[in-house]
Amino acid sequence: MVTLMTSSETAVTNVLYRYAEMIDSGRFEEMGEGLFAHAEFIVAPPPAPMIDGPAMSRLLVATTIRHSDGTPATKHVITNPIVEVDEAAGTATCRSYYTVFQQTDGVPLQPIAAGRYHDRFARIDGEWCFTQRDYTMLDMIGDTSQHLRMDPRHPPEPST
Q1: What is the pLDDT along the chain (160 residues), one digit of tens a residue?
Q2: What CATH number does the domain located at 8-141 have?
């Protein structure tokens, strides 16, 4: 039997990619209790409060359009991850870029958003988990009319 060892850097990067899979498959409800269970989110500039994983999940459900297949018809492409791990403390940070593509019956394949994620992670019960994500670094916005029920330049007030 072969046992594969995964470095902490790879494990943290895999958490980023799991996020993309879940968001693109429309599994928002699962995210609050699973992927986001230990996380807090910055969704608006201070002094707005951070919100927890279940609140982030509810915000995604409330603001994201799901199409007939139950998905947002998007592909989140996460690139350029810069992962820094403190093995002794069991913590990590990651800075990365994202580009969101979308294609629906109403819009052709196109980029609809691009920005940066600044994330924090911790090793909890042997698994790397999100502990914080900053969603405020949206750098470019395209046509989000088939993706969001809000203007991403003016996010709703977070509720906890």
Answers
A1: 655 668 999 999 999 999 999 999 999 999 988 999 999 999 988 888 999 999 999 999 999 999 999 999 999 999 999 999 999 999 999 999 999 999 999 899 999 999 999 999 999 999 999 999 999 999 999 999 999 998 887 766 655 4
A2: 3.10.450.50
From the number of C-beta atoms within 10 Å of its C-beta (0-12, 13-18, 19+), residue 122 rates as middle
pTM to 2 decimal places: 0.91
Question: 58: how many CB neighbours lie within 10 A of its CB?
Answer: 17
Instruction: Let me know: does 113 contact 141? Beta carbons within 8 Å.
Output: yes
C-alpha 156: how far from its chain's center?
17
CA distance 131 to 58: 18
**Buried/exposed 1-33: b ≥16 CB within 10 Å, e otherwise:** eeeeeeebbebbbebbeebbebbbebbbeebbe
